[in-house]
Backbone:
């Protein structure tokens, strides 16, 4: 009887052990299954979220492309494949947003003398909550917005080679105006070579001092550049470029030495000392043998006139008055200089840049003699953009297509 009870007890204990371990395994199995289910559900949620984010990124890129198209940007570079990743799309959005605000560097620029002030984080901020209004707030420059309206008006016309070419020229100018944003200027000068015009603008696009300019001939092109006015010189000397001295003046001097005196020209040696022209063997001089510098004395007969605006650049290009002011009214040919820019209203421009009435209304008429050049410091660097915009708007917002005087339109 006792043995039977013992075996019953052993059986019960064994059963309990088996139940415990089997139950434990069942619980572990159930837990594993539950975790696998949760993991599958979480992965599904993540895939759905990633898909939503991808679709949202695609939608944002589409919206940015639509806006970019409307302001003349070629968006064909921003097409995407079916296997594109969200990060790739985000990079394209950032690139396109930066171009809508800051443009691309125009290919015609030969010298860049202004430091850029580009906010690279701007595209990251705006890409998450994109709306055309957010970019429009940045693009508040009046001539730019006027040109955008003309661009979209022409886009709605029946397609033709003429319309396509007009749109291409407008796109170039729109890019130039976006490019100005890279420098965040307060007030700045824009010289448009094809228009033969100079305007001073503020941030909003308000125009100050519109005036005519005379720029370089087709074979003596005025280069496009971004630069700034360093200082202003009253009664400047004209240091004749060596190429002009040799190619244009030397034959006239050989023919008649009085040419130097008649043009108020001085001959200087390498030590900046004046040399008597009678002591020079002019016939022996040539392009490879010309150890002199020719300088025109200051005064009303000076080719630079009475005011010169020194620009930062290595190309010896500057803005200046002229001793032939009647050229602004006697002819419409305003592309006749050796490359520098003659301005119609030097006194007004100088006073504007200096920020005070330094030159009075009678300065240009007094024509004092024996004056030494006087350099006037300006309060701060004044940005200057010399550009080649064939298509542009005037002060009234009217669209103009100017003559392609240098043949660069194509």
Residues:
């Amino acid at each position: 009887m006792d043995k039977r009870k013992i075996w019953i007890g052993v059986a019960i204990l064994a059963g309990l052990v088996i139940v415990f371990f089997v139950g434990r395994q069942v619980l572990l199995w159930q837990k594993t299954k539950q975790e696998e289910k949760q993991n599958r559900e979480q992965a599904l949620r993540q895939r759905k979220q990633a898909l939503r984010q991808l679709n949202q990124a695609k939608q944002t890129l589409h919206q940015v492309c639509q806006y970019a198209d409307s302001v003349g940007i070629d968006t064909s570079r921003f097409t995407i494949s079916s296997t594109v990743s969200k990060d790739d799309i985000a990079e394209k959005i950032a690139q396109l947003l930066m171009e809508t605000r800051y443009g691309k560097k125009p290919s015609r620029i030969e010298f860049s003398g202004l430091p850029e002030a580009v906010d690279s984080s701007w595209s990251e901020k705006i890409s998450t909550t994109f709306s055309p209004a957010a970019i429009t707030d940045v693009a508040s420059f009046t001539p730019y917005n006027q040109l955008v309206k003309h661009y979209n008006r022409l886009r709605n016309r029946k397609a033709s080679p003429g319309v396509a070419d007009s749109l291409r020229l407008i796109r170039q100018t729109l890019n130039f105006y976006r490019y100005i944003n890279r420098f965040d200027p307060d007030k700045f000068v824009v010289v448009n070579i094809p228009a033969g015009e100079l305007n001073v603008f503020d941030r909003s696009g308000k125009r100050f001092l519109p005036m005519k300019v005379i720029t370089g001939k087709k074979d003596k092109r005025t280069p496009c550049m971004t630069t700034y006015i360093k200082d202003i010189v009253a009664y400047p000397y004209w240091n004749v470029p060596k190429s002009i001295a040799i190619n244009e003046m030397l034959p006239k001097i050989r023919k008649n030495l009085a040419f130097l005196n008649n043009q108020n020209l001085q001959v200087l040696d390498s030590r900046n000392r004046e040399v008597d022209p009678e002591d020079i063997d002019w016939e022996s001089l040539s392009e490879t043998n010309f150890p002199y510098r020719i300088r025109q004395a200051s005064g009303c007969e000076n080719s630079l006139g009475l005011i010169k605006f020194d620009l930062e650049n290595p190309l010896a290009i500057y803005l200046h008055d002229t001793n032939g002011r009647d050229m602004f009214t006697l002819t419409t040919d305003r592309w006749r200089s050796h490359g520098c820019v003659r301005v119609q209203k030097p006194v007004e421009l100088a006073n504007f840049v200096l920020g005070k009435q330094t030159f009075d209304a009678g300065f240009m008429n007094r024509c004092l003699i024996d004056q030494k050049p006087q350099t006037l410091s300006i309060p701060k660097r004044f940005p200057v953009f010399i550009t080649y915009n064939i298509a542009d708007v005037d002060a009234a917002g009217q669209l103009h297509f100017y003559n392609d005087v240098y043949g660069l339109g194509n």
User: Anything to note?
Assistant: The chain has three domains: 1-135, 185-237+297-410, 242-295. The chain has a mean pLDDT of 89. Residues 314 and 329 are 32 Å apart (CA to CA). The chain is about 40% helix and 20% strand.
